[in-house]
Amino acid sequence: MIASVRGAVRHVGLDHVVVEVGGVGLLVHTTPATAADHRPGQEADLETSLVVREESLTLYGFAGADAKALFQQLQTVSGVGPRLALAMLAVHAPDEVRRALAQGDLAALTKVPGIGRKSAERLVLELKDKILATGAGAADLTARPAAAGAGGAVHGQVREALEGLGWSAKQSTDAVTTVTRGADAPTEVSEILRAALRELGR
């Protein structure tokens, strides 16, 4: 098991980073928000979870142990794999996920692409007691500032990233359009992506 990685960032994508460790570049899948916090040439220090399949070894990275633990816990539910667990953490902060599970907030859970009502009910049924037992269900939602957008090519990158996470082309376009209104809108891809994820998570 690769529990963590630390090294120079070689590349940053919308949903992954490449970290050089001992001369080897490791592709680490992350949430868009975590990827956006890194820059090429800077050092990354990520908690990681290695998912082993017959045909692949896939590394998932997190800014802290809390998100990593929740990522692993979510996968104990039938039908929830690593991509869906990561999508949940892309849409909601760890405390928001725990609160939704503890309170049975199906509306919040079904904001995640790939999670329908039945899947949300199963998540609540299987994890609610475990979440409440840790005392995490009472955590407040993390306040998030609004953000907004940029030009055509940048918007296209953001829409592509959102579609890759499971939203439809229309949902992605509508979200980008909504968050890029305003004269003082920032132009960074990461800022637009974060704002669009918040918009889709409403």
TrEMBL record:
The keyword Cytoplasm applies. Residues 72-91, 107-126 form the Helix-hairpin-helix DNA-binding motif class domain. It comes from the Bacteria. Residues 154-202 are annotated as: Domain III. The keyword Iron does not apply. InterPro entries: DNA_helicase_Holl-junc_RuvA_I (IPR013849), Hlx-hairpin-Hlx_DNA-bd_motif (IPR003583), NA-bd_OB-fold (IPR012340), RuvA (IPR000085), RuvA_2-like (IPR010994), RuvA_C (IPR011114), RuvA_C_sf (IPR036267). GO terms for molecular function: ATP binding; four-way junction DNA binding; four-way junction helicase activity. Keywords: Cytoplasm, DNA damage, DNA recombination, DNA repair, DNA-binding. It is found in: Cytoplasm. The RuvA-RuvB-RuvC complex processes Holliday junction (HJ) DNA during genetic recombination and DNA repair, while the RuvA-RuvB complex plays an important role in the rescue of blocked DNA replication forks via replication fork reversal (RFR). RuvA specifically binds to HJ cruciform DNA, conferring on it an open structure. The RuvB hexamer acts as an ATP-dependent pump, pulling dsDNA into and through the RuvAB complex. HJ branch migration allows RuvC to scan DNA until it finds its consensus sequence, where it cleaves and resolves the cruciform DNA. Homotetramer. Forms an RuvA(8)-RuvB(12)-Holliday junction (HJ) complex. HJ DNA is sandwiched between 2 RuvA tetramers; dsDNA enters through RuvA and exits via RuvB. An RuvB hexamer assembles on each DNA strand where it exits the tetramer. Each RuvB hexamer is contacted by two RuvA subunits (via domain III) on 2 adjacent RuvB subunits; this complex drives branch migration. In the full resolvosome a probable DNA-RuvA(4)-RuvB(12)-RuvC(2) complex forms which resolves the HJ. Has three domains with a flexible linker between the domains II and III and assumes an 'L' shape. Domain III is highly mobile and contacts RuvB. This is Holliday junction branch migration complex subunit RuvA. It comes from Ornithinimicrobium avium.
